[in-house]
UniProtKB/TrEMBL annotation:
Regions that span the bilayer: 17-38, 59-82, 88-109, 130-148, 168-186, 198-218, 256-278, 290-315, 348-379, 400-420, 426-447, 459-480, 500-518
Gene Ontology BP terms: plasma membrane acetate transport
Record PROSITE patterns: NA_SOLUT_SYMP_3
Subcellular location: Cell membrane
A GO cellular-component term linked to this record: plasma membrane
Membrane topology: Multi-pass membrane protein
Name under which the protein is recorded: Cation acetate symporter
Record lineage: Bacteria, Bacillati, Actinomycetota, Actinomycetes, Kitasatosporales
Major localization listed first in the record, in broad terms: membrane
Family classification: Belongs to the sodium:solute symporter (SSF) (TC 2.A.21) family.
Alphabetized GO MF terms: acetate transmembrane transporter activity; symporter activity
Keywords tagged on the record: Cell membrane, Membrane, Symport, Transmembrane, Transmembrane helix, Transport
Length: 543
């Protein structure tokens, strides 16, 4: 029996009552936090970085709350349930990425920047084109990530309410978009951070509860869990071996390499993650925040592996796929079965709790993404890149007002795109966002921090070269056309064979930055690089 058929057996009144109560509780709590924080967010520093008043522990929880998105809780677990070992590779990529952040990014970015990635670049390069390029890339990356979260929200509520999608799923996406606009425009970074902290605690506790129930079901025998998952997958021993998803052809193996590069390198270029390091008072606090985040994220992914195997063993891969072809609803279906199955009070309550935790996850992440996107537009584009040198500088009040307007515009655009991408796995969509971040933002950041000769032309070429390459390759990939699960089904204009562009677009971003630098007529200013080097390593002059 499929998950949706099981849900049909649950008394409709009970089902909707529990679902509505839990979802309403999540929304009310987050709105209360937003209104409380909104009264304390007045200056630009309060709006963008919460007054830099958070401790390393608080920021570590907030970072994990920002990072553990719908892709982690819904998408990765679903991929493990469907593809076993190959699905597990997603979680490894997400976790290993934090070593890059800890070693190369956290402390240096905190010392050099103020609100956004462009602030780091402007220490050496104060030209408007650099701000324009970096701000544009920031908006695009966060928009792609937003689409993934909102698609996850649509799948989740569609399952919870027992609807087949269509209007119910679409209205869910609209509702999540409206809520994220309220969070950002009213509460700013202070509200967003506390929402992420609360969400991280709920997510870790909820995941731990489900993990414990799975282990109890199999008497703590992990070997039996894996054997049962292999049987439930329908693929036998191939489920526990590499190749079920990415090993069939040379193209699929290259796609896996491309995905791995994007996941490992993309985190260090995500605007909403970089912004989190500005919410603590010092670079040392930023590094300790990253350490806390690594521990929390690592614990979560270990539990996600158990949940994915549990979904294959208990629910069955065929039932998960029948309910949602991308596997986005594997966790709620597993919760329903662990609680006693359809028709039981325990199953209904546990199912609703798991869904509410996932919904809180989505709300927290979309708030952080919207804030990062609006900051890129208002702080980098509106206040600096789009203004002539002879114009009067923008005041903090005007900049924050524009950031709030940008949040509304970004929310509307994310809603429109999400309505056309509902068939795609949310973890896969996040992989695309990581690829764009690794292609456009990471080369610029690393060159700026570590290459003395890097110039403004190199920065602009690196950003646009990686960004345009990634977007063009995605547009002409099987993701957009050429298959029944494509964004535009029924037509085929794809010529790029890989679903993730990272294998090609990331080297192109680094190559474009190098070419722009070596062909630039203006040499890099050695004094400005020396200033950045001292500031990044010692914190002297840091905001």
């Amino acid at each position: 029996m499929s998950g949706r058929a099981e849900l049909a057996a649950v008394p409709a009144a009970q089902h909707h009552l529990v679902a509505t109560a839990l979802f309403a509780a999540v929304v009310l709590v987050t709105l209360a936090i937003t209104l409380w924080a909104g009264r304390r967010s007045r200056a630009a520093e309060d709006f963008y970085v919460g007054g830099r008043s958070f401790s390393p522990v608080q920021n570590g929880f907030a970072i994990s709350g920002d990072y553990l998105s719908a892709a982690s809780f819904l998408g990765i677990t679903g991929l493990i349930a469907l593809y076993g070992y190959d699905g597990l590779l997603y979680s490894i990529g997400f976790l290993v990425a934090w070593l890059v952040v800890l070693m190369l990014v956290a402390e240096l970015v905190r010392n050099c920047g103020r609100y956004t990635l462009a602030d780091v670049l402007s220490v050496r390069m104060r030209q408007r084109p650099v701000r324009a390029a970096s701000g544009t890339a920031g908006v695009v990356v966060t928009l792609l990530y937003l689409v993934a979260q909102m698609v996850g929200a649509g799948s989740l509520v569609s399952l919870l309410l027992g609807t087949g999608g269509g209007p119910a799923r679409s209205w869910t996406i609209v509702g999540v978009g409206a809520l994220m606009v309220v969070y950002v425009t009213v509460g700013g970074m202070r509200a967003t951070t506390w929402i992420q902290i609360v969400k991280a605690v709920l997510l870790l506790c909820g995941t731990a509860l489900l993990t414990a129930l799975v282990l109890v079901r199999f008497h703590g025998d992990l070997a039996e869990l894996m054997r049962s998952a292999a049987r439930g997958s329908g693929a036998g021993s191939a489920y526990l071996e590499p190749g079920l998803k990415y090993g069939a052809t040379a193209t699929s193996r290259l796609d896996f390499i491309s995905l791995g590069l994007a996941l490992v390198l993309g985190t260090a270029g995500l605007p909403h993650i970089l912004a989190r390091f500005y919410t603590v008072p010092t670079a040392r606090a930023a590094r300790r925040s990253a350490v806390w985040a690594i521990g929390l994220v690592g614990c979560f992914y270990l539990m996600a592996i158990v949940l994915g195997l549990g979904a294959a063993a208990v629910v069955g891969s065929a039932a998960v796929r029948a309910d949602n072809p991308a596997g986005n609803t594997a966790v709620p279906l597993l919760a329903l079965d662990l609680g006693g199955g359809a028709g039981s009070t325990g199953g209904l309550v546990l199912f609703a709790v798991a869904s509410a935790v996932a919904f809180a996850t989505i709300l927290a992440v979309v708030a952080g993404l919207t804030l990062a996107s609006s900051a890129s537009f208002a702080h980098d584009l509106y206040a600096r890149a789009l203004r002539r040198s002879d114009e009067r500088p923008v005041t903090e009040r005007q900049e924050v007002a524009m950031a709030r307007i940008a949040a509304v515009a970004v929310g509307a655009l994310a809603i429109a795109i999400s309505l056309y991408a509902q068939r795609l796995n949310v973890a896969f969509l996040v992989g695309l966002a990581f690829a764009v971040a690794a292609s456009a933002n990471l080369p610029t950041l690393l060159y700026s921090l570590f290459w003395r000769r890097f110039t403004a032309r190199g920065a602009v070429w690196a950003v646009y070269g990686g960004l345009i390459a990634a977007l063009v390759l995605v547009a002409f990939s099987p993701v957009v056309s050429g298959g029944p699960d494509a964004i535009v089904p029924g037509v085929d204009f794809h010529w790029f064979p890989l679903e993730n562009p990272g294998l090609v677009s990331i080297p192109l971003g680094f190559l474009a930055g190098w070419l722009g630098t070596v062909t630039s007529r203006t040499r890099a200013d050695p004094d400005r690089y020396a200033e950045l080097e001292v500031r990044s390593l010692t914190g002297a002059g840091a905001v």
